[in-house]
Amino acid sequence: MHYQNWGPQEITAPVRSELPEVPVERGMVLEDAQSGWVGAVTRVEKSGGMHVVALEDRRGKSRSFRLGFGFLLEGQPIRLVPPAPRQAAPVAAGRTASGSVRVAGQRAQVAKANRIWVEGKHDAELVEKVWGDDLRVEGIVVEPLHGIDDLAGAVAAFSPGPGRRLGVLVDHLVPDSKESRIAAAVMDSPGAAGNVLIVGHPYVDVWQAIRPAVLGIEQWPVVPRGQDWKTGILTAFGWPHSTKEDIGLGWQRLLGAVRSYADLEASLLGRVEEVIDFLTVP
């Protein structure tokens, strides 16, 4: 008898060498051995330094579990591991994600006074993912505004002028909209002419600037008037949508599909390039 084996044991962590390692996949039906919860994989995310998988049961309820030991696949115990890294879409050698020529050996520049303002965190993350390399070379920082209702006050506080230019990217900037009226008022303010550029795209939210084909759909879902747009989109996709965390995780899935400028709509590409040119041309 091996007395050293006495004492508490982790029954959900069998000997690692005896269990097959199975990469998690969307749609895979798993059972959590400890709780008996059975469900299909709807998403896998990295949270707090660990991978978490969400299992949705036949009633539509979802629970999250940490990847690793303690799962049954077709009745057999396995070690559930993260999915294989997705191969990035090929980018031409010597090119950045924006399609610009990559500057070899160039260090990031110290941030200049010029700024790009976008409406929110998601806008900033998308711009950074595609144009981040270019902006670091130019020393330009992207900052989220969290809405433009007080854009006039923010611009006044920024004090634009020669050598201190400001480019603003606005969602849903279409004629006769609230956004267009705010932009017009700002451009009439002192110091704005020649030092501030406000451009926008026609989409309700920057999410729509991702080409539908990149997400495997023909077009973006139509959200009924009066319903929160992001919640409606996630509902249409069949993704969790009840909490702010669900919204954030949904956006990360969408952002993960973007590999280069080719995955974005031309109406956004042109506006961002226009702002960068405005801020970098003497």
Can you tell me the overall shape?
elongated
What is the mean predicted local confidence, pLDDT? 82
Give me the count of strands. Answer: 11
Following the backbone from N to C, one meets helices and strands in this order, namely EEEEEEEEHEHEHEHHH
Distance N to C terminus: 82 Å
Helix content: 25-40%
- Side by side, the strands of the main sheet go 1-7-6-2-3-4-5
- Class based on secondary structure composition and strand pairing: alpha/beta
Stretches where pLDDT is under 50 for at least 5 consecutive residues are 1-7, 99-111
The DSSP helix count reads 6
Computed Rg: 24 Å
Largest sheet: 7 strands, mixed
What percentage of amino acids are in beta strands? 15-25%
Can you tell me about this structure?
- The protein has 282 residues and is α/β, with parallel strands linked by helices.
- It has 6 helices and 11 strands.
- Strand 3 and strand 4 (50-56) form a beta hairpin.
- The radius of gyration is 24 Å and the shape is elongated.
Can you give keywords for this protein?
about 25% helix; alpha/beta; 6 helices; about 280 residues; about 20% strand
Give a topology summary.
Elements: E1 21-23, E2 29-32, E3 38-47, E4 50-56, E5 62-66, E6 71-73, E7 76-81, E8 115-118, H1 121-138, E9 141-144, H2 151-158, E10 166-170, H3 178-187, E11 196-200, H4 229-237, H5 244-256, H6 266-280
Parallel strand pairs: 1-7, 8-9, 8-10, 10-11
Antiparallel strand pairs: 2-3, 2-6, 3-4, 4-5, 6-7
